[in-house]
Every structure is written in C-alpha cells, then in structure tokens.
C-alpha cells in the first residue's frame, strides 16, 4: 500500500510572517502606497503619535513592490523553516521582533530623512543565524566568519560607495542581531537551557 503524500503546515511562524507581508504588500499596491506610509514604514514622525511606535515593529511587513517582496520572501522561506525547527516558534518571533525594533529605532534616531520598510533586516538576521547551525562550545564556525565577511562586508561597501534606495543599515543591523542571537541560542541549546 502506498503512502499518501500530504501538504503540511511545517513552519507556522514563518508562514504567517510571509502571509502578513503578502497582505501588507497587496494593501500597499491597492492603496497606491498609502498603507505603507500609515502602517508599514518607519520614518521620523511625532513621538506623540501612537503609530510611530507601531511602525517600529510593522515596517518589516511592508515592501516597496512585488520584486522587493519576492526577493525577501525567497530567503525567509529558504532559511526560516530550518531555523524554526531548530529553535522553536517563540524564538523565531523573538528574532523578528528584536530585529524590527533594533532597525526601526536606529533608523528613527540616526536617519531622520530616510523611511524604512521591508524584511531585509530579518533576512540578514536569518542568514547569520543559519551559519550557527552546527555550532559547538568554544568554537566559531568558519561558515559564520565567511558569511559575515561576505554579506556584511558587501553591505558596508555598498553603503559607502553606492547611492541607492536600499537600507544597508538595516541589513547590517539585522546581521548583527542574527549573529548575536544565533550564537546565544546555540550556546543555550547545547546546555539545554
């Protein structure tokens, strides 16, 4: 008797994150960019507006367009399920929230004339976290060093040399958050903490 193949909901946090990003991008398309300005983009706005604080988290859901969305979601769907299986759903929510807050607050404080939207910081956090999948106590994986040099080095170079509409700051900070959390989560899991 043959086993039936079935589709499974294997990574609830990642799949829900992608669905929210899809909804936000669709809404942005339908509203001609208004929904991003109101909810899914962080920028320097009044501290008396409650939406200023909401946007510090929700900017990771908004995307400039479909190409931006597809580029980020390809990495999220590639790396996220592996990380969620290894660390659990709550830790993945923590990574997403911490990355959103760090990139949102730094953008708000230091880049007054720059709006920030998209999951690129989360993507870079996942990239750096994934290089810690075979971590052992007292060791730094060479894959982590190479990933950090290649991905973060590229972002530093592009941030200095290129004048484009890409937030290299979010990529760099996302990578730093992913590296720190990847190291600490793997260290804890070794000891069962």
Please, could you describe this protein's structure?
This protein has a single domain (12-191), classed as Rhomboid-like fold (Up-down Bundle). It is mostly helical. 68% of the residues lie in helices and 0% in strands. Helix 6 (120-130) runs antiparallel to helix 7. The longest helix is centred in the C-terminal third of the chain and has 24 residues, at 168-191.
CATH architecture: Up-down Bundle
Globular, elongated, flat, extended or rod-shaped: what is the shape? globular
The helical percent reads: 55-70%
CATH H-tier superfamily: Rhomboid-like
Total separate domains: 1
Low-confidence stretches: none
User: In angstroms, what separates the terminal alpha carbons?
Assistant: 43 Å
Radius of gyration, CA atoms, in whole angstroms: 17 Å
CATH topology: Rhomboid-like fold
User: Order of helices and strands, N to C?
Assistant: HHHHHHHH
Give a quick summary of the entry.
With 193 residues, the protein is an all-alpha fold. The chain has helices at residues 12-30, 34-38, 50-58, 66-87, 89-110, 120-130, 142-161, 168-191.
């Amino acid at each position: 008797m043959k086993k039936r193949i079935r589709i499974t909901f294997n990574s609830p946090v990642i799949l829900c994150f992608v669905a929210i990003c899809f909804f936000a991008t669709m809404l942005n398309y339908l509203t001609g960019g208004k929904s991003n300005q109101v909810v899914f983009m962080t920028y320097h706005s009044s501290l008396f507006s409650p939406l200023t604080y909401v946007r510090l988290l929700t900017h990771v859901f908004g995307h400039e367009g479909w190409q931006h969305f597809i580029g980020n979601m390809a990495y999220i769907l590639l790396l996220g399920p592996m990380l969620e299986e290894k660390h659990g759903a709550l830790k993945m929510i923590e990574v997403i929230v911490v990355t959103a807050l760090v990139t949102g607050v730094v953008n708000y404080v230091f880049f007054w004339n720059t709006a920030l939207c998209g999951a690129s910081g989360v993507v870079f956090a996942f990239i750096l976290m994934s290089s810690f999948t075979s971590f052992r106590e007292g060791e730094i994986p060479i894959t982590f060093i190479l990933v950090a040099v290649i991905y973060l080095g590229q972002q530093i170079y592009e941030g200095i040399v290129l004048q484009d509409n890409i937030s290299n700051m979010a990529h760099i900070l996302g990578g730093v958050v992913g590296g720190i959390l990847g190291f600490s989560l793997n260290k804890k899991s070794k000891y069962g903490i």
